[in-house]
Amino acid sequence: MPVKLVQYWNILHAAKSDFDAYFTQEYVPRINETGFMKMVGSWHVASGEGPYFITEGIAATVTDVESLIMAPIFLDLRNRLLQLVRDYQSKLLVPVESMDPDIPEVEHGYKFNQHFNINPADFYAFLAFEEQVHLPQMKHFGLTLVGGWNVAVGATPYIIDETRADNLATIGEMLENPAYQQLTLKLLQLVSNYGCKILVPSGHINS
Amino acid sequence: MLPCTAGLTHGDTMTVKFIQYWDVLSERGDEFSKFIAKNYIPEINETGYLKIVGSWHVASGEGPYFIMEGVADSVKDVHGLLQLDEFKKLSHLLHFLITNYKSKLLVPAGPIEGVVPEDKNYRFNHHYNVIYDKIDDYIAFMKDEHLPIMEELGVKMIGAWYVAIGPGPNMVVEGACPGVKLIMDAIGSERYRRLTEKLLTMVDGFGSKIMVDSGVLH
Fold first, then answer.
1. Is the ipTM of this complex over 0.85?
2. Which fold has domain B122-213?
3. Which member of A131, B136, B144, B202 has the greatest number of CB atoms within 10 A?
């Protein structure tokens, strides 16, 4: 199963144009050239907590990610990146067993991601709810399920449900829908530390 | 600091806000709804110290999921409420039904004329810390660019607040809208992206929330 390396940061104001050039002309293509991971999307957090800039790469295995992060080229690339950004952090995501992630060559559309911890006592009830109620309902609201992820390395919450919409209006209609609020209230009975983000393309990789 | 003008709802002029946040405990949803509607809100309002003017669900952003918004004429009034035995009892009972409780006392930071039209039932709030040595640039930016552009994008700015007491970030700027679609149109626009990128040069700890009416007050 593919795994995802997500990197987050805020761009230093004085370095914005340098960042844009470095990220698109060096950071992304050089990582892709290693063959260990492919950068598939970069986003701005339009609603939710920062850092404001998010980029995601897909690798075939955890071993590939390990090879990447140990490679001298990546250490050099990241060191140069860190001169242009602040608040850098990263997460390694592995798919929830029951869900095959939908991984495009390059990301498209907009993301609506929910993150939370499953209440330990409700683990099996949560799995049933996800499969039978939550994810089908999200599809009913017009969103495509991208993947369910466990945060293998990085800051919790440790579950991320990732969905995609072709346009922001679909996400807006869902958020206004009382049925969505009821669905979220049911989810909240099974999880803690709940939050969500709306991501819009930053234009560096996908637009 | 800018002149303080932050009336909050439907023409009332209030000077401070007391915001409470929580998640409802599993299996306590029905009990919670009854308690909030029949006891917590009316009994707080009856004290005369604080008026509950909003109850929200966080549709997008970090939890806690439930937000209750009260307004008072002064910090002294909020203090008066917190000292009341009636409030202590209500708070004690509330804590049997909820978790992750926190509260904030917000004082106006201007320069927003905070009258909320009746039809603006959704909120799009930003929160952050203003970088100390950028404060003058920030104030000019908010007045000359951020507020007018947000309003042109359809988001009416209704309040700017300092977190006087409670967890940070220490600035909350409130926007109101008649529908989430307008917020989506705004956040998908190039103007909003440029505006946010400029704001981020003056603040840190930036985040935002979209809030929808929980229905508890109606």
1. yes
2. Alpha-Beta Plaits (3.30.70)
3. B202
